[in-house]
């Protein structure tokens, strides 16, 4: 008989269902301030407060009193002090309303009623009907999500991603002149430098970061079907398009003049596609570094007390890069789904976006976790320069390329005996390992001009890196 088990679902405090709120919480915790359910409700309170202040400050609704500086500060303090007690109170209201945005409206009206206890004589209790004035829930939600995502990107994700790309760039500069045997199709190829290869990845990451840094965050406040219908009927004398534009821009967002009930979310699709592309470039970095570790180019500095294998004590596994790969794949899959789903809404409104947008946090969370892992992994690497030198010295056949190219140039210059250079080098090198003596003997028998022959005789695989080291300087472009 199986004995009864403790129900883990009933344990207090609650146990996280997913790893981002459990095992990996420390790495992603900063996103909670922006992309959690509590952050969504705080953003809604913020939008409602600013809308109320905007309507009164600009005398949009006839008869509405102007709010004093103290009254505006009181309202904004509702947002600033939004914490555990307010989260619990809002949840209690929502259990009655069964509507999240309506709960925010009632929450804020409570604060208006309570204002005399803090401010003394105040007009705030009289402006309760200006809370959520002429708004549909989506007017509040679209602005809240735009503010949340902007905050998550600009204050958390982008600084972490930028720091990562800077660290890759620093490694590239440090190893700009370190010769490296290249592998194309997994086979020995024209040498490069380790720094140049890292610079390629840093350059790619930075290009995506520039795109992400330039992405727009759009918003609207125009009513139930985007027509300002209730606005115009309630206050026909107001320039509602101007009121809407100035409010959205006051929040630091880009105004969208043409929408249905929802803001179309195209900006989100654009942003998520860019972030997913950054993820995929970073995934390429993770797999390349993993391969370099496997090959011995990089050695990993062991962490004191850490275990690489439960049975093989010698192992130092590249777990940071493997963890990053998996989390980048999950993040990109979620971002792709968000981008594909959010651009479609049936006719003037459906609710698919409501549930979809609640997964923005996990999408960025898995990406941020991957960034953290790659950064930690890069800091634990050391270059085995001796191994790189041995690899190069064991592959003199890679000089077949410059030798046959020099023969072509000599032929064009009128030197005789330079026929079929590619074919002759192919016959010498294809599928064979050459020594330095083999290559130099071949060069000596070609009949090249003395200066060309001398230059080629001095060439080594380690010295055949072209402009690779200099190209790293393009990171400063």
TrEMBL record:
Signal peptide (from-to):
none
User: Ranges for the Adenylosuccinate lyase PurB C-terminal domain?
Assistant: 345-465
Which superkingdom is the protein from?
Answer: Bacteria
Extract the InterPro entries matched here: Fumarase/histidase_N, Fumarate_lyase_CS, Fumarate_lyase_fam, Fumarate_lyase_N, L-Aspartase-like, PurB_bact, PurB_C
UniProt domain Fumarate lyase N-terminal: residue ranges:
22-324
Q: Which Pfam families does the record associate with it? A: ASL_C, Lyase_1
Describe which pathway this protein belongs to, using the record's wording.
Purine metabolism; IMP biosynthesis via de novo pathway; 5-amino-1-(5-phospho-D-ribosyl)imidazole-4-carboxamide from 5-amino-1-(5-phospho-D-ribosyl)imidazole-4-carboxylate: step 2/2; Purine metabolism; AMP biosynthesis via de novo pathway; AMP from IMP: step 2/2
Q: Which UniProt keywords apply?
A: Lyase, Purine biosynthesis
Question: Which enzyme class?
Answer: lyase
What Gene3D superfamilies would the database entry show? Fumarase/aspartase (C-terminal domain), Fumarase/aspartase (Central domain), Fumarase/aspartase (N-terminal domain)
EC number of this enzyme: 4.3.2.2
Q: Name one GO molecular function term.
A: lyase activity
Q: What does this protein do?
A: Catalyzes two reactions in de novo purine nucleotide biosynthesis. Catalyzes the breakdown of 5-aminoimidazole- (N-succinylocarboxamide) ribotide (SAICAR or 2-[5-amino-1-(5-phospho-beta-D-ribosyl)imidazole-4-carboxamido]succinate) to 5-aminoimidazole-4-carboxamide ribotide (AICAR or 5-amino-1-(5-phospho-beta-D-ribosyl)imidazole-4-carboxamide) and fumarate, and of adenylosuccinate (ADS or N(6)-(1,2-dicarboxyethyl)-AMP) to adenosine monophosphate (AMP) and fumarate.
Q: Which PANTHER family match?
A: ADENYLOSUCCINATE LYASE (PTHR43411:SF1)
User: What is the official name of this protein in its record?
Assistant: Adenylosuccinate lyase
Name the source organism.
Answer: Cellulomonas fulva
